[in-house]
Amino acid sequence: MVLINTTSGTPLNTRVASALGAKDSSVRLQAALAVGSNPDPGLLETLVERCAVEPDFFVRDMLSWALTRFSPRITLPRIRQELDSERAQARSQALHTLGKIGDRGAWAWITRDMLRDADDEVARTAWRVAVALVPEGEKKALVDELVVQLGRGDRSVQLSLSRALVDLGDVIEPALEKAAANPDPAVAAHARATELLLRDPETGFNAAIDEARRVIALGPERAAAAAAAAAGVAEPSEVAEPSKAACVAAIGEPTETTESTGAVDAVDAVEAVDC
User: Fold this and answer.
1) Euclidean distance between CA atoms 66 and 97, whole angstroms
2) DSSP assignment of the chain, as one string?
3) Which of 16, 20, 52, 141 is deepest in the core (most CB within 10 A)?
4) Whole-angstrom Cα distance, residue 90 to residue 18?
5) Residues 6 or more apart from 53 whose CB is under 8 A from it?
6) Higher pLDDT, 211 or 235
């Protein structure tokens, strides 16, 4: 059991703090729910400390929800301190909680170092929260910062970045066009895949990234001709660019259209419930 602060004053708070550190995750989940249902400022520190060490995703998300139940006046300054923590989970969970609170004043706290954090989970959370909080006049600067990350990580990390960029809208197009000409094939493919997702959000990311790589390998004209031939729809000279249907015919239906990591799936599930 991880030791946490139990100096919050009352015997009840001491019991709740102990329950937040219980071995059984269901006990910890119920304790976090209880705190959020009846928020006591005396337990603020305990919740924040627990966020940094809690191993279960669903309990962590309940802890963040409980923190949103406190007054932002006392919660935000404490969460801001966690953004500079040496523990990656503390930074990630603090960012996640900022996103849940949704105070746009916290935009100024999201730094370049967070967006480029060496820990993928911290960076992914920073991307998502930055997009949610960015003022309209800062969007282009955020795009310029995010495109630097194109080609980073595995497909689940790349999909997180693509989703963040697409959520910013058409402002990303010039930066993606430039990145698509990058000599690094991983960067170029990621940029092209993001362009496809921007045009058609229903496109599976695996299909988009595979099409982008094929276009880079063959060149636009040969890729278009190959796609047309595979679909049996036109002579090469009649096709300007491969359609989605042609791409599917050429490379097969995608077997995966969402992020593959359990943590990301869990985030989508919990945020859909909107605790």
Assistant:
1) 10
2) -------SSSHHHHHHHHHHT-SSHHHHHHHHHHHHHS--GGGHHHHHHHHTT---HHHHHHHHHHHHTS-HHHHHHHHHHHTT-SSHHHHHHHHHHHHHH--GGGGGG--HHHHT-SSHHHHHHHHHHHHHH--GGGHHHHHHHHGGGTT-SSHHHHHHHHHHHHHTGGGGHHHHHHHTT-SSHHHHHHHHHHHHHHH-TTS-HHHHHHHHHHHHHH-HHHHHHHHHHHHT---GGG-SS--HHHHHHHH---S--S---HHHHHHHHHHHHT-
3) 20
4) 20
5) 2, 4, 87, 89
6) 211
Q: Which two tokens stand for residue 136?
A: 């309209």
CA 97 vs CA 21, 47, 60, 171, 273: distances in Å: 20, 11, 10, 27, 16
Whether the Cβ atoms of residue 201 and residue 169 lie closer than 8 Å to each other: no
Least confident residue range of 16-20, 24-28, 198-202? 198-202
Please tell me the distance from the alpha carbon of residue 194 to that of residue 166, in angstroms, as a whole number: 7
CA separation for the pair 32, 200 (Å, rounded): 39
Residue 113: CB partners within 8 Å, gap ≥ 6?
A: none
Amino acid (one-letter) located at 111: T
72: exposed, middle or buried (Cβ count in 10 Å: 0-12, 13-18, 19+) = middle
The residues near 102 (Cβ < 8 Å, ≥ 6 apart) are 132, 133
Are 93 and 79 a contacting pair, CB within 8 Å?
Answer: no
Within a 13 Å sphere around the CA of 149, how many CA atoms are in the beta-carbon half? 30
At 50-79, the pLDDT tens digits run 999 999 999 999 999 999 999 999 999 999
